[in-house]
Amino acid sequence: MSESVKDLANPFIDLANRLAAEGNPVHMVAGGFLYAAARYSAFVTLLAEEEGQARSRDAQVEVVVSAFRADLLKHLNQRPIG
């Protein structure tokens, strides 16, 4: 993953940490971010469809799910996380 993507992710991680520190259950914070990521990914897919640059929806879902799975496994195996 490029450093620019990581740099873009850092403010979201900071926000998640603030939301948890404010007393929101971490599973709710995580759920909110998953929902937001899915919603934004759908937006990006639909935008690509409108521009005639889209893969099939099934292929796009697989791209997103595969990327999430790879990143999740990488972070689960990273100690300490951070």
How would you describe this protein?
This protein is mainly α. It has one domain. Helix content is 78%, strand content 0%. The protein has 3 helices and no strands. It has helices spanning 3-21, 26-50, 57-76. The radius of gyration is 15 Å and the shape is globular. The mean pLDDT is 92.
Give the beta-strand count.
0
Distance between the termini: 15 Å
Mind telling me the C-alpha Rg?
Answer: 15 Å
Helix content: over 70%
Helix and strand run: HHH
The mean pLDDT is: 92
Poorly predicted regions are none
Short structural description:
The protein is 78% helix and 0% strand. It has three helices and no strands.
Secondary structure elements and their pairing?
Blueprint (H helix, E strand, L loop, with lengths): L2 H19 L4 H25 L6 H20 L6
Descriptive key words:
single chain, 82 residues, mainly alpha, 3 helices, 78% helix, 0% strand, DUF3144, DUF3144 domain-containing protein
